Amino acid sequence: MSAGQGAGQSVGRLYTSEILGLAVELANYPINKAQTLHAEVRSRSCGSTLAISIDASQNKSIRSIGLQVSACAIGQASAAIFAESGKGKTKADLMQALNALEAWLANDADVPDWPKLVLLVDAKAYPARHEAILLPWRAAIAALSKAETHG
User: Fold this and answer.
1) Is residue 114 assigned to a domain?
2) CATH (domain of 103)
3) Contact partners, residue 131, CB within 8 Å, separation at least 6
């Protein structure tokens, strides 16, 4: 049994065709060096990494997103879910979403209101996957924070 897997749980249930399909969608969001804001984050629990490039509008909301993800299929699916609905979000929006995600993963709240996040509901039972799920929000917040300090 792998770390973070409960008795009687099957990792096979975790890697559904929907999850694997989301991972493939990352090809629609290539990292772009021309985008003005960049950040990279790493999971302390599993070593997954996520690099993000963002162009922000004048009101500091996300105009476009590029991602480079080195993670399990759950981390990749989370990144695709983030990218699909991240456009137009501000740092405040993302911080609110991250707080809701953290509360949900800690069993203190319902699934956050973010499109397709319900597809990750089975991953909640695998604490070793939690940090990989959070990476896209953490990276985007870090990148958008640079917009505040650099203009």
Assistant:
1) yes
2) 3.90.1010.10
3) 43, 44, 45, 46, 48
Q: Tell me how far apart the alpha carbons of residues 137 and 41 are, in angstroms, rounded to a whole number.
A: 10
Tell me the whole-structure pTM to 2 decimals.
0.89
Task: Identify the helix (H) or strand (E) that includes residue 136.
Answer: helix 130-149
Model confidence pLDDT, tens digit, residues 85-131: 999 999 999 999 999 999 999 998 999 999 999 999 999 999 999 99
Cβ atoms of 80 and 23 within 8 Å: the answer is yes
What is the rounded CA–CA span in Å between residue 101 and residue 107? 10
Number of structural domains the chain divides into = 1
Tens of pLDDT, residue by residue over 10-34, are 566 888 999 999 999 999 999 999 9
Flag whether 19 is in a domain.
yes
CB 35 within 8 A of CB 87: no
